[in-house]
Write a structure and sequence with these properties.
alpha/beta; Alpha/beta knot; 2 domains; seven-stranded parallel sheet; four-stranded mixed sheet; 11 strands
Length: 268
């Protein structure tokens, strides 16, 4: 097989490598999607790639495609293993105005999360739970970081995600009549006793710093996830988000309202 690109010194390959860095993604407004599964999910969600690089056949592609010698494409991959395809996509819209709210919205608000894997896992969990959107506030990691893309397993493409600040977010919540409940190890209400019905934004803070004073101040309740005293003072942020989200879903649907088998219940 002959390839369009055979050298890691090729300018297009160098451009892919630069996109590992946030400053380059912000400058260009594009990000990378690696591997056939995520690339396929991006297409299925209606996204159109700017260009696609492949090192092997058998993967459905859209638009301009360049073939790359396998070892060269692997060098362009942030994991050093491209799985045969890297797609370049435009950034998704991340304004609050992209969120279409139903009558009884459930939002996950993430404050100051610095680990890309945590943000990706939260997006995946929020999608699985049926949340209507995710909003990040504060110094949260870039949502187009390769590790966010990968760990979201495609939820980044289908679940509305907004990047905001409390200065913008607070009046937006008030305008839409959305109450705020925040999870905190210092909460004074057990999660199992909290009222998670109605239009609601669930706030999860960073593992090390916890919630900001601003987040705590706007919450109608600070809830704590009950835990044993076996030397654990808090949960991983993405785990905490999962527990709180699914408790909200349980309350909203009722014990008899949950329909099993809607989606996969095991990791993939």
């Amino acid at each position: 097989m002959s390839y369009d690109i055979t050298s890691s010194g090729n300018e297009r390959i160098k451009a892919l490598v630069r996109l590992r860095e946030r400053v380059e993604r912000d400058r260009t407004g594009i990000f990378l999607v690696e591997g056939p599964r995520l690339y396929g999910r991006a297409l299925a969600s209606g996204l159109t790639p700017v260009i696609t690089y492949v090192s092997e056949g058998g993967v459905e592609t859209v638009g301009e495609v360049l073939s790359v010698e396998p070892s060269v494409l692997d060098k362009a991959s942030y994991r050093k293993r491209s799985e045969g395809i890297i797609g370049v996509f435009h950034h998704l819209e991340t304004g609050l105005n992209r969120i279409e709210l139903p009558a009884d919205p459930l939002l996950l608000v993430i404050e100051d999360i610095e680990k890309p894997g945590n943000l990706g896992a939260m997006l995946r969990t929020a999608a699985a739970a049926g949340a209507d959107a995710v909003v990040t506030v504060g110094g949260t990691v870039d949502p187009f970081n390769p590790n966010v893309v990968r760990s979201s397993t495609g939820a980044l493409f289908t679940l509305p995600l907004a990047v905001s600040s409390w200065e913008e977010m607070i009046p937006w919540l008030e305008d839409h009549g959305i109450g705020v409940v925040a999870a905190s190890p210092d909460g004074d209400v057990s999660l199992w006793d909290a009222d998670l019905l109605g239009p609601l934004a669930l706030v999860i803070g960073a593992e090390d710093a916890g919630l900001s004073e601003q987040a705590s101040a706007i919450a109608r309740e600070l809830v704590v996830i009950p835990q044993t005293d076996r030397g654990v003072d808090s949960l991983n942020a993405s785990v905490a988000a999962a527990v709180v989200l699914f408790e909200a879903v349980r309350q909203r649907r009722g014990r008899q309202g949950w329909v099993r088998g809607v989606g996969k219940t095991t990791p993939n």
